[in-house]
Amino acid sequence: MSLPDNEKILRIKHSLEKRVVTLPDGTFLPSIGQGTWYMGENPESRNKEIKALQLGIELGMKLIDTAEMYGNGDSERLVGEAIKGRRDKVFLVSKVYPHHSGLDLIESACENSLKRLGTDHLDLYLLHWRGRVPLAETIEGMERLRKDGKIVRWGVSNFDTDDMLELWDTANGKNCVTNQVLYHLGSRGIDYDLLPWHHEHNMPIMAYSPLAQGGSLRRQLLSDPTIIEIAERYNVQPLQIALAWTIRSNNVIAIPKAVKEEHVLANAQAATIQLTIEDLNRLDEVFPKPTRKIPLDII
Ligand SMILES: NC(=O)c1ccc[n+]([C@@H]2O[C@H](COP(=O)([O-])OP(=O)(O)OC[C@H]3O[C@@H](n4cnc5c(N)ncnc54)[C@H](OP(=O)(O)O)[C@@H]3O)[C@@H](O)[C@H]2O)c1
């Protein structure tokens, strides 16, 4: 993909501003953000990674997702460097390890993340996945962090429908604002009951690995004739169609990770692609919606 001219960049920014998802507290977020898994681990690619995140912010992909787990804090350190002087333009998300999510450790885990990120608050803090700590305890820890102003809101990750039902029945569980789960055109198990549950409860999903890790989790996304034909019609790449597909409703925020400049631009540009009902029906034929419960796909 050639670098777009200024007019195209303005169009991309405008599309990202308009294609928003609303959190339960009324906050609007562009439906495409940026992932950071594996960033910060290789000193040779550090500058490129920082520039990629900064370009993404300039284009309007303001949500940046990281975790204390990624590179043992190296991803958070890199994000901290990338957002220096730009904190107000970013919606910062980090995640706590399940074994740090009890009342004894969650505050220090959060403070360590804040230090690495060079900020005094997270916009969103997620429980990375469910571990042994009772949900009620993690929720209480999250609520304390919220009251102390260290996080603005909290959510969960890798929660299947039964986990969400349990969360909903736990005190203050309804303060959860999102659930970050694996979702791409080649892995759409959540379309059966988890995504409908989220729709009903007005809580967006955050889709991780929305590009199936550049197609490596599902090669067919790169080679399928239907995707290729649709991509050619929009004059874009097949993975941009896959990304546009994940954000087809206004209830999913996708967080692709990209280091290559052309990938950052391509991902932002996916917000300009409005797939038609006919496109969606054709994609459904090749990548059918599940007709029965499939346990949540996790990587
Ligand atoms: N909560 C969880 O348990 C969980 C699990 C997994 C991921 N995540 C989050 O979700 C983010 C995204 O998922 P992911 O990193 O697993 O995979 P992904 O975003 O689906 O794919 C990333 C890969 O795709 C390539 N790529 C990016 N844009 C592209 C484009 N337009 N065309 C072709 N290739 C492209 C990237 O290459 P380059 O980098 O070379 O540009 C990279 O190799 C993570 O970074 C992380 O923040 C969360």
TrEMBL record:
<feature type="active site" description="Proton donor">
    <location>
        <position position="70"/>
    </location>
</feature>
<dbReference type="GO" id="GO:0016491">
    <property type="term" value="F:oxidoreductase activity"/>
</dbReference>
<dbReference type="InterPro" id="IPR020471">
    <property type="entry name" value="AKR"/>
</dbReference>
<feature type="binding site">
    <location>
        <position position="128"/>
    </location>
    <ligand>
        <name>substrate</name>
    </ligand>
</feature>
<dbReference type="InterPro" id="IPR036812">
    <property type="entry name" value="NAD(P)_OxRdtase_dom_sf"/>
</dbReference>
<dbReference type="Pfam" id="PF00248">
    <property type="entry name" value="Aldo_ket_red"/>
</dbReference>
<dbReference type="InterPro" id="IPR023210">
    <property type="entry name" value="NADP_OxRdtase_dom"/>
</dbReference>
<feature type="site" description="Lowers pKa of active site Tyr">
    <location>
        <position position="95"/>
    </location>
</feature>
<protein>
    <recommendedName>
        <fullName>NADP-dependent oxidoreductase domain-containing protein</fullName>
    </recommendedName>
</protein>
<feature type="domain" description="NADP-dependent oxidoreductase">
    <location>
        <begin position="32"/>
        <end position="286"/>
    </location>
</feature>
